[in-house]
Amino acid sequence: MGTHETHSSEPEPLSLPVPVTPAGRAALDAIVGRPATTLVALDFDGTLAPIVENPEDARAHPGAVPALTALAPKIAAVAVITGRPAEVAVRHGGFAGAAGLEHLAVLGHYGAERWDARTGTLSAPAPHPGVAAVRAELPRVLAAAGDLPGVSVEEKGGRAVAVHTRRADDPRAAFEALRAPLTDLAARHGLIVEPGRMVLELRPPGMDKGVALLEHVRETGARSVLYAGDDLGDLPAFAAVEKLRADGVPGLLVCSGSTEVGELAERADLVVDGPAGVVRLLRELAAQLG
Questions:
Q1: Element housing 113 (H / E)
Q2: Which is nearest to 186 in space by CA: 212, 150, 162?
Q3: Which residues contact 107 (CB under 8 A, 6 or more apart)?
Q4: What's the CA gap between 232 and 219, in Å, rounded?
């Protein structure tokens, strides 16, 4: 005979987690105490959107936009800083036209592109010529690396090329086999390789999430910062927050938990359970701010 379970219709109570570091606790106190001068900046894939085998299938966690629309009017600014093209992140995130996100900025290609919610406009520099050259040579380089079934190539709007190994028979072995030849290919055409969670991205140098974050802090005049990320590409943003701390600007470092990127978790003030944990944190912060 089955048992009958009853479920309360009352919403789950929200309470802010406690950061594990003194700097993180001080930053959270500053954010709660002075929300009107706070910038919340977030990565997209792995932070707002679960990691999936096919990058084109990635979509923001269903609670992401509601959490952001609850939080955004209570703070100075919200930004999404992503390696994706800005318009792709906007589309996959469902950010366009969301009430409450009128001042959202999506900084794509690590900050080289910018989409502003208020105007719906996208600004971007001309593509680096090395990207087209790399794309043309890539099939030969991949073939020379050996039989690697499951490896796929993602074109990022003519501004970068990503080689994914997550669907390979041995994702880590394929990643390591391709690292050196792709680094050589990128260098020949004036690009760099950005490693990530089973992905190697070939892109122009000179911009990263740390540079983008610092520029946005200056632009918004933020006096406290929360940054959440999940991957190696977020380490420059973590370093930027640490620099801001040294300059007297409180900063909270959040890792969207992953066993694939231990370094990020080790440097974080707070580790949450993936995009669902990030969404919960945003909801808890919005509720705390009243």
A1: strand 113-116
A2: 162
A3: 79, 80, 81, 82, 86, 113, 114, 212, 216
A4: 25
Q: CA 245 to CA 17: how far, in whole Å?
A: 20
Which string of DSSP letters, residue by residue, matches 143-168? HHT---TT-EEEE-TTS-EEEE-TTS
Amino acid at site 121: T
Spot the catalytic one: 43, 208, 230, 231.
43
- In eight-state DSSP terms, residue 44 is S
- What are the average pLDDT values for consecutive 10-residue runs of the chain, which has 290 residues? 40 78 97 97 97 90 98 98 94 96 95 95 90 94 90 89 93 94 96 92 92 97 97 94 98 87 90 96 95
Distance CA 98, CA 80 (A): 14
Q: What angle do CA 20, 26, 29 make, to 5 degrees?
A: 110
Kindly give, in sequence order, each residue whose CB lies less than 8 Å from that of residue 271, ignoring residues fewer than 6 positions away.
254, 255, 257, 265
- Check if 43 is active-site: yes
